Structures are given as C-alpha cells and as structure tokens.
Amino acid sequence: MNAFYAVAYREYRIRLTNPILPLWDVVVPVVYLIVFGSSLDRAGFKLTLGATTTDYPTFFLGGVLAMVTFSVAMNSSYAFFEDLQSGIFHELLTYPFPRRDLLLGKLAFNTLFSVAGSALCIGVGVLVLGIAVPASSWLPMLAWVILGTAGWYFVFSWLSLRMRGFNAYHTATSSMYLFLMFVSNLFYPAATLPPWIRWLAALNPITWQTDLLRYYSGAQPWAPTLLAQAVAFIAFLFCAFFFANRKLNGPVE
Amino acid sequence: MSDAIISVTDLRYSYRKGTRRGEALAGLSFSVERGEIFGVLGPNGAGKTTLVRILATILPPASGRAVIAGCDVAGNPLGVRRSICAVLQESAVETLLSVWDNLLLYGYLHGYSRARTRREAERVVELLELKDSLRQRALELSGGYKRRLQVAKALMVDTPVLFLDEATTGMDPLIKRRTMDAFRDEAARGRTVLLTTQLLDEAEALCDRMILIDQGKMIAGGRLSELRARSTKVFSVHLSFTRSGPEAVAAVHELGARSIQEDGGEYELVVEGQEDEWLQKLARLSASFPLARFEVRSASLEQIFVELYGGYPSERGAGA
C-alpha cells in the first residue's frame, strides 16, 4: 500500500475507535451557526461590510466555516502529541517513506471532516437559516475550507511536536484557540474591534480566511484586499508546512 | 573483502538536558557484516539507545559517519529507512488498535499489499503465539506482551537490517527463547541484526560479535572468544570436597578468590591470575582437604563485563 494511503488508513482506524471526537468537529460548528445565527437574527442584527448590508446568519457562515477548519486542524494535529506520549511516534519515524507523508496522509483523512462539517454548515445555513449561498460558490468555499484546515493543521502539528506534557500542551493550544478566534473577524466585523486589537486581527490568518469565505458566501463584496489576503494565506500555509515538516525531519528527543 | 552492511566511524552525539550538557556517544567506530547478529552491550546510560536512534535516523549524529546498506544516515536517511526496521525501547504499539490491526497497519506502512500483509501477519501470529489476543486492544496488553507485538511487527517485514533495542525485556522465558530462535533464523536467512542489551546471557547466546560501550565509548569488541582472550586473568573454578568441613571452607576462603559462591557443598570461585598458579593452589588444597571434583572454566560474559567495566556499578560508584 502506498505510504500516503497507509497513513490515511491509520488515521481512519484510530478515529474509528473514538467517533465522538470527529462528531464534535462536525456537529459543534453547526450548532454554533444555528444558535448564534437564529438568535442574533431574531434580535435584528444587521451588519454592513463595504457596500453590502447583511443579516447575522449570512455574516456568521464564513466565520463558522473557519471555525470548522480550525477545530479539525487542532484535533488532528493532537494525534502527533498522543503518538509521542504512547511511544509509537519514534517508530513511525523509522518507517520507509518520507516523513512529510506522515503529515500529508493524516491531513488528507482529517480534511474529510472539514469538508463534511462545512457542507453540513452550508446546507443548514441554506435550508434552515435561509442564507442565499450562490451555487457557484460552493466549490471555492470548500477549497478555502481545505486550505484553511491544512494551514492550521501544520501550525498545530509543529506545536504538538514541540510540546511535552499534557498540561503544557493543553494550556498552549487552548490559549491559541481563544486568542486566534476572538482576535479576528470570526464572530464580529474586525472594524468594530478597538484599534489596537484591529491591527492584531488584521494580521491573523483566520481573518484572511474568514474574509475570503464571506466573500464567497455573499456576505461581503469583492475588495482588492481579498486578493492580498488569499496570497498571504497561501504563504502562511507554505510556511507552516515548512516548519512542521522541518520539525518532523529534525531530531525529536 | 569486507561485507559490512553497517559501518560506523567516529560517531558522536551530544545532548543537553536543562543546563547539563553531555556526550552520549564519544567517537564510536565499528562495522557489522551482512547476516551477523551484532551486540551492543553496556550499562544504563552507556549510549546504546542513542546509537540505535542515530542508526534508525531518529537523531542526527553531531559528527562522524554511519552508513547502512550504502546509505549515510545523515545524507540519505530515507535510503537508510528503506533498509531497516527497529524495535525501539519505547512500547511502540498503536495503543488504541487491536493486536491484529497493529500487525496489518505495520505491513501497509511498509508498503506491503493487503494479501502479503495478511500472510506475514498470520505467520508471526503463529510464531510468537499471539492468536489468543488478536482482538485485544494493545492498550490492555502487559509490558511483555507489548514487546512481543513489537517484535512480531519487526519480523513481518524483510528489511536487510533489524535493530533491536532491548527487545526481549519483560518477555516470559518460553517466548523469549522462541524470539531468540526467530532472531537466529532471520540472521541465517541473511538478515543483519544489531541488538542492544544488558542481558549478558542473551548476548552470549545470540551474538556473533559484540562491542562493550560505556559513556559513549567502546571499551572492548570482538567475538566472545576474543573478549575472553582479553581477560585471560579472569576465570572460574568449580570444586567440591570429598568431606567438607569448617577447615576446608576456611581454606577455600584463604585462596584469595575474587568471589566465592557456595551451593550445597559446591563452590564456584571467580579468580584472577595464571591458570597454572591456580592449579598449584588447588593441588595444595587437595593435599589437605581431598577434592571430589574440580573444573576450571573460561570467564563468562558477565565476568568479562565486570572486569572490563572495573567492577559492578556499586563497586565503581557508577550511576545510571
């Protein structure tokens, strides 16, 4: 069996032993979308992004999709940390294939959860919350979901390979999770943030990804900054891959 | 012409733990020929595991060179990995998966087809008596059983080189014997086995050649007979008296042996010196207290080990 598929198969077998975790990745964001989307919509929230005024569910859909990618990426990369703890990790490093296949095979399987979670969110958004997502946007949205999952997965994989001890790992990842989600435009427009946080949010790749997803979901109009954000996100993804791959190929005590 | 499949030259590795720095390997050189079972022996902290980790491409060497099957561990680690498989000291099993799934996965991850993986898995299940626990999660296995599973995985594939880092730790005697037979069979088929161990009886029974290392340096190496030749001054004497008594026992203690063990009137003395000198001492002893039996034996590996390391760890004040 090809190494890439074998790694993806390993991930599948391991994930099967604990179906709650993937379910969490897929179901929780859609619950967020329904609860926040419908309640804030009923409260009459309207947001203006550029020349477009939009309701909260439409605005929030892009953020929820970014949340899906972020959660799946974090939980997938946690498996590296578990492998280190269980003792199998060093053996995995001796297997006869490039170590990047470990990264990519694991990513390939877990991306399925991102795609499933995102499709569910879009479906619920359209059917339950009445969000008008253009059919032509579905594919670009899923593409950005996949790219987003990959980018954050590489970041958290790098982190997992560096951290030792459950407490240190969970403190670091939980802090990052909260910081990156709240210092961004995921729940609210970045323009409404205090100026000093707005700058941080503008530098946060979640903001770039969310803006792109919002553009495709029809929540915000085209702006030249979107192109820069797309390029920046791709650069972020490659940098994250470079560091994660380097860590995996370097000495792991 | 040498048929070395593993060639290690002046290998060094330094580590840093907090503010403490140390040299785990301090210029180690040796070579292993194809089809050999080669032992790396040493006390805790000697550098055995670091050596295996470097050879298995988990750690990069600080300097020096290690070449396996023509591939440099630093320059072509993937080439090395295609020629090796390793049983590492950690309990390297997929804890969440069953024993059977562990085996299947190992085959797939080594590029085997489904049919070949299944065939090889069935073979090692039979070989190492894993049938009763196939559906059990690896998490639930005892330490010894996990080691058995690790060894079974390594025996599934046919890489030219097999690294075993204290592979039989925790195994029950019967399975250990079966495992050691399996290692011998692998070597007989041309597979090269490099094993680290602290179990001297295991090294004595298995290894064609071995090196003894301490603090990252080689202190002796060669075949067991060559190691024995290096420590000619140590050998063991077994004796018993026709009529033992307190005077005879006192006379044995006055002989000046390094150690004396008594078991039901049989004495085992580990002695130093020339063999003829000891034969004369025994003749004198026999004149006063007639001997029923005596036997002079070459030093065991344990005795050589103790001599070369300058005593037991407690005697030389060594830590781990």
What does this molecule look like?
The complex is a heterodimer of chains A (253) and B (320). Helix content of chain A is 74%, strand content 3%. Chain A is mainly alpha-helical. The longest helix of chain A is centred in the N-terminal third of the chain and has 31 residues. Chain A is globular, with a radius of gyration of 18 Å. The mean pLDDT of chain A is 91. Chain B is globular and about 75 Å long. In chain B, the strands form three sheets. Chain B has a six-stranded mixed sheet with strand order 6-7-8-3-9-10, with helices on both faces. Chain B has a four-stranded antiparallel sheet with strand order 2-1-4-5. With 320 residues, chain B is of the alpha/beta class. The C terminus of chain B is likely disordered.
Question: Key features?
Answer:
heterodimer, A: 253 residues, mainly alpha, two-stranded antiparallel ribbon, 2 strands, 3% strand, globular, B: 320 residues, alpha/beta, six-stranded mixed β-sheet, four-stranded antiparallel β-sheet, 12 helices, disordered C terminus
Summed up, what is this model?
The complex is a heterodimer of chains A (253) and B (320). Chain A has ten helices and two strands.
Write the layout of secondary structure elements.
The complex is a heterodimer of chains A (253) and B (320).
Chain A: H1 3-16, H2 20-42, E1 46-49, E2 52-55, H3 56-86, H4 89-92, H5 100-127, H6 138-162, H7 166-182, H8 195-202, H9 205-216, H10 224-249
Antiparallel strand pairs in A: 1-2
Helix pairs in contact in A: 1-5, 2-3, 2-5, 3-5, 3-6, 3-7, 3-9, 5-6, 6-9, 6-10, 9-10
Chain B: E1 4-17, E2 20-33, E3 37-41, H1 48-55, E4 63-68, E5 71-72, H2 77-81, E6 84-87, H3 99-109, H4 114-127, H5 143-156, E7 161-165, H6 173-188, E8 192-197, H7 200-206, E9 209-214, E10 217-222, H8 224-230, E11 234-241, H9 246-253, E12 259-263, E13 266-272, H10 275-288, E14 291-298, H11 301-308, H12 313-316
Parallel strand pairs in B: 3-8, 3-9, 6-7, 7-8
Antiparallel strand pairs in B: 1-2, 1-4, 4-5, 9-10, 11-13, 11-14, 12-13
